[in-house]
Design goal:
12% helix, 2 helices, 247 residues, mainly beta, 18 strands
């Protein structure tokens, strides 16, 4: 009997879920954040520890296996996604002397290869409505420049992500478990994007579309008739997350 492992959105794996919310006093104005309202609530500044980012970056650098098909992301998770608006969200990392804005789309941002800050003194700052917000670290599938995804390539990328997930030191108990890819989900970060599946003859294949607070989520099965997936128009922003099962 198979059991799906999941944390977070849509039952999808939030790999390396670290960090969380804290409410430190405001020591100084760390970033010019919008002073309008989000979802009818006053905007507040919020501080999130940087330690998790350092751990994620160190793991990526030390990981000995292949990771050319993998992309790590920062993902902001508000306490009430259904009513939260990302339109005016600002995220940055700061230390005592430096402030680095981090552009996001619907709460997602690629994890940089490095942050030019003092890790011992750094912290993330973000505006938010009342409530809590957390910062997660996700292993996802790296986007292709041509926005075309043969399913064979998606399977290989998914396998890389699962292997990287299992290799994390704090998850060593998973090493002996038979984790495998179940499917992948395309998350368009622009309403103009369309995700299309085709079979081996080039004919369109219907894909399951789930509606979420952040927009549509298009589920692509890896063991059925789908031969290739394309995202149009080309060059748009999206994230490809994976779901795994424990058989």
């Amino acid at each position: 009997m198979k059991r799906t492992l999941f944390t977070g959105l849509l039952g999808l794996i939030g790999f390396a879920v670290l960090g969380g919310a804290s409410a430190e006093p405001e020591l100084r104005d760390p970033i010019p954040l919008p002073r309008s309202e989000i979802s009818g609530q006053s905007v507040h500044r919020h501080h999130i520890p940087f330690r998790g980012a350092g751990q994620a970056l160190a793991f990526v650098k030390s990981y000995p296996g292949p990771q050319d098909r993998v992309q790590w992301y920062l993902r902001l998770l508000p306490s009430d996604p259904a009513t939260f608006s990302f339109e005016q969200l600002a995220l940055a990392v700061e230390d005592a002397d430096t402030l680095i804005p981090i552009p996001t789309r619907k709460g997602w941002a690629p994890l940089p290869a490095a942050f030019a800050v003092d890790a011992a003194k750094a912290r993330f700052v973000v505006n938010r409505p009342k409530g809590s917000v957390s910062l997660e670290y996700w292993i996802a599938i790296a986007p292709r420049a041509d926005d075309r995804y043969p399913v064979d390539g998606l399977r290989e990328a998914c396998a890389q992500a699962v292997a990287m997930f299992k290799a994390q030191g704090w998850l060593q108990a998973l090493q002996a478990r038979d984790l495998q890819c179940a499917d992948v989900t395309f998350l368009p970060l622009d309403d103009a994007l369309t995700v299309t599946g085709r079979d081996a003859s080039g004919a369109p294949v219907n894909l399951e579309v789930r509606r979420t607070a952040r927009g549509p989520a298009v589920v692509v099965p890896l063991e059925e008739q789908v031969h290739e997936v394309t995202v149009t128009p080309g060059g748009g922003p999206y994230v490809i997350v994976v779901r795994q099962e424990d058989s």
